[in-house]
Amino acid sequence: MIRRTAYFAALALAAYGCGSEKSAAPGLIDIAGAIGSPTELKTSDLGKTITYLPLETTDSSLVASRFSLTFAPGKVVVSNTAGSAASEASVLAFDLSDGSFCNTIGHSGQDPEAFANVKCIASPKENAVLFKGHGGKYVKYGLDGRFMGRVTPDKSMEDMLPAFVDDTVYVYSVYEYFMKPKPMLSVVYAGASGVMLDSVVVVPETPGPQMEFTSGISVFVNNTMMRNTLQRGNAIKLEPAPRVYMPGYPRLWRVADGTTHAMATFSDTIYEVSAGARPQPVAVIAMGDKAFPGSANGVREMAADEWTLSDLTETPSAIILGVKRGDEAMSDDGFIGYYDKKSGATRMTRASDGFVDDLTGFMPFYPVAASFDGSLIGILTQEDILKWIEKHPDAAVPSALQAIIDSEEEPNPVLVILK
């Protein structure tokens, strides 16, 4: 890991300053101001229609208690990361039009076609997903479950899964890690054959002492402000050093309009990134004088009254955000909200309130991901729905959820799709 990061940092620095430039004033995401004047947020602020999509529940398609989602054209791929033995280490494909179960994808094990980790990324042009395999290879599977071959990455990237696939180009984010918590970030582009094409520095590596492992290690979970989140952060403590915080939001992500954005851990700037060009700031996050700075990560403990970004999901029209105070696993005084790209306005509300559903009149909406077409996705469980109905017995229940409510056994989750 140390050798690979140093290699990427040197390569990216060599390219820093090269390429074309464009000038545009970055937008201001005024989180501090919006928290000072919270307001009710509505689903109609972000979209026009809400669809409730229960994922089909069969003996072959059980979704675990912990999972991740990967969106591809017309499909959602569920990677079970923790749960019952029946669903452990499985990858399931569902149809995004009706929630029906399509097929499983791949398998765990030690053979050449097995994945080493259930998490995957989509390769939209190929209608495929890519996993880490064994022996430094990737394994590629079609969305229909058929094995499509093994991919050999550059040796320096063999332990890394790309952040996403842009057409046939693999795009990697190289960032600080817990043994060396520096706010650095580079973007590396590689061809499908594994050959490196370009590397762009976003935030240069800051020289400093490397953390040393001297005794015990502790891991702390930092949940985000969104219900049933997919962006779960954590903190690692190597005794006797201070905690190193690793948020769950992405460092590098693809927006549905085709742009690529990047942000270093606890940075205040979101950049647009492309090969052969200097990164351009597109938005600056203002969290006030109580923001926990990236330069303090691993140097001192986070104070109980310091704010950090906990959630980030972007669509072509908005950036959805969550912020929390302190580093406890749960927070009762966090906020969620959004930055409107067109108007430049930032609006926040208490996380406990969510986005009020003024489109269907049902439960508050918590966006946890963006789909391939830019729709916002929330997740509901049967337990969530039943608790809401118990507190709101007069609420009108969407017809698509009635079977979930009536099920005697816990069914698969429901995707809430806001377009």
Descriptive notes:
This protein is mainly beta and 419 residues long. The chain is built from four helices and 28 strands. The protein is globular, with a radius of gyration of 21 Å. Mean pLDDT is 89; it is low at 1-20.
List the helices and strands and how they pair.
Layout: H1 2-15, E1 27-30, H2 31-36, E2 50-54, E3 66-72, E4 75-82, E5 91-95, E6 101-104, E7 120-123, E8 128-132, E9 138-142, E10 147-151, E11 164-166, E12 169-177, E13 180-190, E14 196-203, E15 217-222, E16 233-238, E17 244-246, E18 252-254, E19 260-262, E20 269-272, E21 280-286, E22 307-314, E23 318-325, E24 335-340, E25 346-350, E26 369-370, E27 376-380, H3 382-391, H4 402-406, E28 414-418
Parallel strand pairs: 1-21
Antiparallel strand pairs: 2-28, 3-4, 4-5, 5-6, 7-8, 8-9, 9-10, 11-12, 12-13, 13-14, 15-16, 16-17, 18-19, 19-20, 20-21, 22-23, 23-24, 24-25, 26-27, 27-28
